[in-house]
Amino acid sequence: MNADELKRRAAERAAEWIEDGMTVGLGTGSTAYWAIRRIAERVKEGLSIRAVASSMRSEQLAIELGIPFVSLNEIDRIDLTIDGADEVDERLHLIKGGGGALLREKVLAAASDRFVVIVDESKLVPTLGAFPLPVEIVPFAERLTLNRLCELGGDPVIRLAPGGDRYVTDNGNWIADCRFGRIVDPASLNARLNQIPAVVDNGLFIGMTSAVVASRKDGSIEVLMP
Ligand SMILES: O=C(CO)[C@H](O)[C@H](O)COP(=O)(O)O
Q1: 125 alpha carbon to ligand 1 midpoint, in Å?
Q2: 194: domain CATH number?
Q3: Could you give the C-alpha distances from 71 to 30, 68, 81, 105, 208, in angstroms and in order?
Q4: Ligand 1 centroid distance, CA of 87 (Å)
C-alpha cells in the first residue's frame, strides 16, 4: 500500500465519525484532502452538516465538492475537526504547518470539541523535531525575528514558494522553518516562541489532540487517545 493509500484510509475512517447536525472543521494537506473527499460523498448520501476550513485551499475544495460551507465568523464552536500532521509524538503532541496553514489550523483545533488527527504511520515518532518546525512570522520584523529564533537554537530558514519567491500564508505572513533538533519539552518551546512579538504562532500543537487515526502498512488502522 503506497503512502497516499495509507493517508486515504486514515482519512476515510475519521470521516465516519461525523454525524448529522455537526459543525465540522476541515484540515489542510494531502491527508485532509481525502477526508474532505469522503465528507463530500457522505453529504451527497444525505449527511447534513456545515463546515469551516483551515485554509483557502480546503475552503475551495469543500465548496467545489458541494459541502455546505460557512465562515468562521458565523459559528461559535466546532464539533469535530479532522486534520493531518507532520509529526505525532507519544503524548500526541504535534508538529503541523508543513502545508503552511498552521495558524488557521490551530484556531480551528482550539475551537473544536474534538480534534482528530489523521496520519500514516510514518508520522508517529517518539520525540518531535526531525521535521522542521514551521513558525509563522510577520514580514515587517523578519530580521529581528530570525535573530530571536536563532537565539532559541532554531536555525531558521524562510520558506520559499515553488517559483522562488517567499511563501506567503493565507494571513499574508511568512514562514520560518526551524530546526531545533529533538524537542524534549515542546510546551516550553511553544511558550518561548510565542513570546517573540512578531511570531504569530508556531506549528507545535500541545495537548490539543482528542484522537489520532493512524494507518499502518500492514493494512490495520489504530486509534490512539491521549
Ligand atoms: O499541517 C498541515 C498543513 O499546514 C498538514 O496537516 C501537515 O503538513 C500534513 O500534511 P500531509 O497530510 O500532506 O502530509
Answers
A1: 15
A2: 3.30.70.260
A3: 22, 11, 15, 14, 22
A4: 9
